[in-house]
Amino acid sequence: MTLDQQIGEPRRFRTFGDELRKRFGGRVQRISIDAGFTCPNVDGAVAQGGCNFCDNRSFSPSRRVRLAAVADQLSRGIQSVRKRYGKVAGFIAYFQPATNTYAPVDQLEELYRLALQHSPEIVGLAIGTRPDCASDPVLDLIDQLAAETYVSLEYGMQSRHDATLAWMNRAHQHGHMIDAMNRSRGRRFETCAHVILGAAGETHEQMMHTARSIGVLGVDAVKIHNLYAVRNTPLGESVLRGEVQLMERDAYIRAVVEFLRLIPEQVIVERISGDAPPDYLIGPQWCLEKSELRAAIERELVRLNAFQGDRYDPDWRDEPVAPLPTPPAIAARIGSRGRLPVLKLQGR
Hints:
By secondary structure, this protein is α/β, with parallel strands linked by helices. The chain is built from 13 helices and nine strands. Helix 9 (204-217) runs parallel beside helix 11 (249-262) and helix 11 packs across helix 12.
């Protein structure tokens, strides 16, 4: 039986919007929150400089304006979404920029509960983090919250390949993702893997290796992004100098289609492309045409009579990779107590 027959809709892949409607009975929108977190590859805990592609102003709407209190961001976000969409069944508070589990765990609980208690319209949390920043105290806290509400923990996996992660200056390895998922599976929250296609030096076959690893890891959802370059980043400078070539549109469509076919059909596909504000974006320009890009991906699936998971092999096994634990410097920060001044809760 094909995916569209199973869910009763003519869908070639399992979309996030459909899954939220099933869960909550209507449209649910995420409200991006910037709580002022940093990252361990920025502050020196594991590296400095951050990811080569990352300028948080371009990745998150909330970082394009002055950092405000979390409660203020939620109020403004709800108002903006209602103005755009009208009737909404609920909102998910999305801790998006930087690494949103990289702080003392008692402060994390205060922050997450502040968001949940902001309004009865907040129906859950989404928390973006790195796989090396998911120590047991963090997972225990998130599991406790998931007993009370919907929670999705989003891991910045980016690639299965350590050479690619090193090129990105991620300062973690795939072994950290394996360890994080080993300790996340069976808990009450959902897990989502962020993946970037088109990294310098990665072949199509290597990207499909990443796709196959999604089934082995056992994540509940995936976000697929194209690599894009923004101004004032190491990647952006490399692209402007002609040292890095960004993926062509047709190659990306082909990669996404095959990626979808190789992952399990039950995995929720939260995103199939990424973009940045035109003022920040260097390229590729085609990623700004998100609706047409999605339509082209769906047309290619139809042309091939292809569905998510129709080439998934449950017997495929990845090459052995040893799990890597949370680095001591990160574990120490999460295990400490007391408020970090970088986080802004109620006041301005």
